[in-house]
Amino acid sequence: MQPPPTPVPSPSSAPPPAPPPSAPVDPGPRPSDRVLMDWLWRGHVRQRLGFLLVAVVLMAIDGSMLGALSLMIEPLFDEVLVGGRGGLIGVVAAGIAGVFIIRGVTSLIHKTMIAWLSEKVMAELQQQLLAHLMRLDHGFFHRHPPGALIERVRGDSQAMGGLFTAVLPKLARDGISVVALLGAAIWIDWRWTLIALLGIPLLILPIMVLQRIVRRMGGDARISAADAATRLDEIFHGIFTIQRSGLERHEAGRFERVLSRFRKAQVRTVAGGAGMGSLADLVAAMGFALVLIYGGAQIAAGERTVGQFMAFFTAFALLIEPLRSLSALNGAWQTVLASLERVYGLLQIRPRIAQPTPPLAPLPTRSQTTVRFEGVEFAYDSEPVLRGFDLEARAGQTTALVGPSGAGKTTVFTLLTRLADPQAGRITIGGHDIARMDLRGLRDLFAVVAQDSALFDETLRDNVLMGATGVSDARLREVLDAAHVSEFAAQLREGLETRVGPRGSALSGGQRQRVAIARALLRDAPILLLDEATSALDARSESLVQEALDRLAEGRTTLVIAHRLTTVRRADKIVVMERGVAIEEGDHATLIARSGAYARLHALQFSGPEAGQPPPG
Ligand SMILES: Nc1ncnc2c1ncn2[C@@H]1O[C@H](COP(=O)(O)OP(=O)(O)OP(=O)(O)O)[C@@H](O)[C@H]1O
Ligand SMILES: [Mg+2]
Q1: What pLDDT, in 10s, does the model give residues 349-380?
Q2: pLDDT digits (tens, 9 = 90+) for 417-446
């Protein structure tokens, strides 16, 4: 009756857009089943062994009751129904009722216990996975789309719960049922039992074939489920682009194709499981027919009683159900193993950005925060993004990075904050390699206004505080005023307590940027990184917010990325980047005088005789 547990969809290896050959993320060889089980046992099961044993004992009692039931059929027929000893009927009835009561009570308890245990283990696994995934680097998240990761954390952990909800009950309850019923059948007549089971060897080969199909299809189903999750994730994130470009039908079509692959694999999985059950039925029917012929003759000859036959028949009929369930055991087991393997695989991926082993380099003090890039080489994929990049940003000064889109400016910040590590070269702060510094301590050195700062679906206040505690109201107000958040917060219905929607979608682009600036102002870190920090603001708020940022930058090591050159002309040093190298540097006046790349950029932006005036818009 039980098809193999519906494989909870989850990706095996999420379909990366372009897996970079240079950066193998997925861990080495496939771990053996033993390794997987050992890991699960040590990590999540061992601590609850007592609890588990109680549940297993209850399952065993539950399972053995069927054997008891079939044994009661013999006196029911021979003594009561055929033998006419009416007085016994109460005893037999009470016995049969007792069997069902015990079954009912034990199954209620063990099912509840197992539900509790499996939910507990699944929750633990999800937390463990999330904590682990959050430590992984840029490259990993570039290869694994969010939708697929969501599927893995949720789906694979849940599929592993099948170990407790499917595999264990099959083993303990159905296994014991089979043993008890077979015992009863042998007790009644071992020859009949032997005859009935003659067909079983016939089952072995077809079931092995079916199992392979089920496992492969189960894997396919999980991969396409991950694809489906990725599609949905991208559709909902890009919904407005889709609507504006009229891509609804196109996207629906892509989704349909993914779903149809999922459907096919899923149906085959279930059909394979059902096929195993049907085969078992066929063999049982054959066995039963043989017993009927042989035993019927014995009863007719008076060698056997009707009660014995009925008891045997009952045991045999009751045997079919748990046998079918057991035949699906391997399918359920394979499903659990497949998920276990993927979860284990994810956990084995070592974060490439890791806390260095001691001795650690000292963290710089405020006055030592000179930043240096020395011959830094970096590629996300195979295409180099930084190619022998050198930079010096002196402590306490403002250094600007300018250059065309795609030059690698944002990448400089990515490497400096160690979201990724360079493939060659060195990055130092205060003369010490950042790769040798305490990771948390290093990241605490920076206040960043990123090009695409993430807002979270929390209140405006929480989005500014970002977990900071002990911030006085006065200080918060000061920051909000300076970043011009107060201005629009006052117009929101619930002010600072307004929720900003998923990824800040209830705010305008400029408002989101002001929230990001407020965060940076609040952080009071020694190094300030501004990536197009005011690009989304209107001219008036830009000049006001810029003032606040200039004030913040005073006395801090500041790196500014800006396309609008007005923002950077007062910088102590301007570095012009092109295709991953610094091609020019100097202050505004020097670079203009040199008539090089910077001067050309400048001329483009401020074309006309009044070069040097702010651009029109
Ligand atoms: N996560 C990523 N995976 C792969 N390639 C990336 C990734 N991020 C950036 N790149 C590539 O690296 C190059 C430099 O990107 P970067 O974001 O540093 O440019 P930028 O100078 O900041 O440009 P912009 O001025 O448009 O912000 C680009 O060619 C881009 O395609
Ligand atoms: Mg950028």
Answers
A1: 888 888 888 889 999 998 899 999 999 999 98
A2: 999 999 999 999 999 999 999 999 999 999
Protein residue closest via CA to atom 28 of ligand 1: 406
Q: How far is the CA of 577 from the centre of ligand 2 (A)?
A: 12
- 183 Cβ contact partners less than 8 Å away, ≥ 6 residues apart: 67
Ligand nearest the Cα atom of residue 404: 1
Ligand 1 binding pocket includes 411 (Cβ within 6 Å): yes
- What is the total count of domains within the chain? 2
Nearest residue (CA) to ligand 1, atom 13: 406
298 CA distance to ligand 1 centroid (A)?
86
Going by pLDDT thresholds of 50, 70 and 90, the confidence category of residue 67 is confident
Cα(4)–Cα(1) distance, rounded to whole angstroms?
10
Specify the CATH number for the domain of residue 151.
Answer: 1.20.1560.10
Tell me whether residue 131 is in a domain. Answer: yes
Q: Is 261 exposed, middle or buried (0-12, 13-18, 19+ CB in 10 A)?
A: middle
Same domain, 71 and 196: yes
Q: Say if ligand 1 is within 6 A of residue 407 CB.
A: yes
Sequence-distant contacts of 43-48: CB under 8 A, at least 24 apart? 43/128, 44/121, 44/124, 44/125, 45/121, 48/117, 48/120
Report how far apart the first and last C-alpha atoms of the chain are (Å, whole number).
Answer: 71
Distance between Cα 407 and ligand 2 center (Å): 8
